[in-house]
Amino acid sequence: MPSMRLLTFVVGVVVAAPLLLTVNAAPQNPAQTTEARLPVTRVVLYKSGIGYFEHLGRVRGDQDVTIEFTSGQLDDVLKSLTALDLDGGRVGGVSYNSDAGVTRRLSGLRLPLGPSATRSQLLMALRGARISVRGTTAPLTGRLLSVERENHQSGGVSTPMDMLHVVTEAGDIHTVALDGGVTVRILDADLNDEVANYLTIIGSARDEDVRRLTLSTSGTGERDLFVSYVSEVPVWKSTYRLVLRDDAAPLLQGWAIVDNTIGEDWNGVELSLVAGAPQAFIQRLSQPYYVQRPVVPMPERMLSMPQTHSGSVIGGVAGGIPGGTVGGVIGGVPAPPPTPPPARPSPQGQTFSGGSGGRGGGVSVTSAAPTVEDRARAAQDAMQSAATGTDLGDLFEYKLNTPVTIRKNQSAMVPIVTGNVTAEKVSIWSADGSGSRPLRAIWLTNSTGHTLDGGSISIIEGQAFAGEGLIDPLKGDERRLISYATDLAMLVTSTADSSPSRITRVMLNSGVLVQTREDRRQRIYTARNEDAQPRVLIIEHPVRDGWVLGDNTKAEETTPTAHRFRLTVAPRTSATLTVDEVRPGQTTYAIGSVTDDQIQLWVSGTSISAEVAASLREVVRRRTIITELNAQIATAEAEVATIDRDQARVRENMLALKGSVEERQLVQRYVRQLDEQETRLELLRRDIRTVTTRRDEAQVELNRFIDGLSQQ
Questions:
Q1: Per-residue pLDDT for 370 more than 90?
Q2: Cα–Cα distance between 655 and 652 in angstroms, integer?
Q3: Closest Cα partner for 180 from 16, 7, 13?
Q4: 400/258 Cα distance (integer angstroms)
Q5: pLDDT per residue over 574-584, tens digit each?
């Protein structure tokens, strides 16, 4: 079987060598090119994963500054880039390579090829193109007809192979097997360029994370160019060492671990590290966005008629604006002509003004500062506010006193804090923790005058490593417990009161009965010290919702989750700590709405005073009187209702007797009965009115009595 060899296409490809951060001159002689560096002069790193960078360098004439970033960095740069040509030059346009997807970029080519096109697919996309085929018995020139997969016979063996069909100028169709030694050359220059563009786009996919941002500057002579931006960087870390000394105050030393990953050396930069996490976010500004537009079909028939258009009327003049002022009408209201923004003074004697010219216009800057350093500082002051102090609101800045050099893709440790602190060595045991062994800890007071960023801390005691722990951010003069080892010399146990007590008290206040209760419980902590030296034990008692410490229990300090108590334990002895807790509660009742049974229950209890009991009994007595009066009224009203029903029955009977023999005799008896009932009804209604009046008066007196109850 003959071996298959690669098909070679001869195309023109230009490869540009990448640069980190250079200035490419555009001299009058195109054959000459100069390069200069814009070194990093200042770096500020933040805990939110961003860094602020400043570059300052010299440019000459019309030059382009090229900076390389990753896609993630470029998004931040586009949000924050500031470029100042400090000596009368202009900063023009800023351009960068697009981040459009490979598929979308390929769709702009004339070749219908995808990102994974094969040899056969590429040749099929070139159908109709003029090509030259070499490697056959004789050179062949013509137009490509098709590429088909056919079985090729060689040495009695049939092998599937791509067959190239070419139509010559004479009209002959030749079939060429694309085996070893066959070379195809594209003769159409336009298609040759299209293939080159296709291969460039495919090749750029491997390097698509490199984004080249180019700033165009224009001017005369040598000038200072200042560039600043914000970029994504690794978060800098803090780590501390605390040296405990017998003859001196404890020494705290803090270091910061910094990573340089921007692809540019930091040579003698001014480095600042900001503790805290200012808000930062990612916005894909470098990524092209497309919107979906509706497709509106053309009408089947279009008929355009001549028409006239009226002119605008402003100030009584039709068709324009008096005085030749440029403006417009928005929503029927005249729009004022655009006015340039007022001149804004800049620091250090600089004046910024808009302008045009050079490479598409830009920002014109003139300076009266005598030195490059003064101009750079003025540019920094113009872009930053309140960044020279140490306190930045909720943030804190560590500004190194000496320049720092860190090579690209390298890391370094830089000192940020050194000073004496106040530290007390204690043991700490938490009731919510597991185990009976406490932890050795340092009660550290930050007396360095600086805010300490959170990080790890190593404890050095007796010229040896004693342990390590973690420290949260610590403000100046703030105190914090830092545990670093297990205390093997102490044991701590705790017992709780199994039957918490309850104290209840009842009082009256303006007709309201207030029932207060107080739940009590107790926990006893016992600590044993087996060391030959006394130890200070910090016991953390959990804070429970609704419970407070008793009057005789005082905590050293209280956190959102625990009460901390100090217990000193003598050598080889035990000590105890008793923590009393109470949970107060209160319930109120309106005396006028409670039942007599509930009042009887309170009166029979032991938590009520004799005065309150007497008042409640009086309420019950008065209520009983009112209840009896209501019963009398109800009895009388029931009798009235019975008489009313009986009279209705009698009247019905009298109507039924009309015209009968017994009518006269029965009518006389019914009349006597009705007369007697009317007399009774009159007495009942008088009694109801009398008893109702007595009941209402009793109710008023009861309400007045209840409102006046205020005994304890």
A1: no
A2: 5
A3: 7
A4: 13
A5: 999 999 999 88
Per-residue b or e along 401-436, where b marks 16 or more CB atoms closer than 10 Å to that residue's CB: eeebebeeeeebebebbeeebebeebbbbbbeeeee
Distance CA 369, CA 380 (A): 14
Q: What confidence tens digit (pLDDT) does each residue in 559-576 have?
A: 999 999 999 999 999 999
Evaluate whether 560 touches 586 at the Cβ level (below 8 Å). Answer: no
Which is it for the CA torsion 315, 321, 327, 330, positive or negative? Answer: positive
19, 38, 43, 55, 69 from 267: Cα distances, Å? 18, 11, 11, 11, 19
Q: Which of 68-72, 88-92, 116-120, 685-689 has the highest mean pLDDT?
A: 685-689
Q: pTM (2 decimals)?
A: 0.56
Contact 81, 227 (CB under 8 A): yes
CA distance 118 to 690: 114
DSSP H/E element including 533: none
Which amino acid makes up residue 27?
A: P
pLDDT of residue 427: 94
| Rg value, the chain, Cα | 49
**Token pair listed for 17:** 């060598």
Separation between Cα atoms, residue 200 and residue 578, nearest integer Å:
80
Residue 711 pLDDT: 61
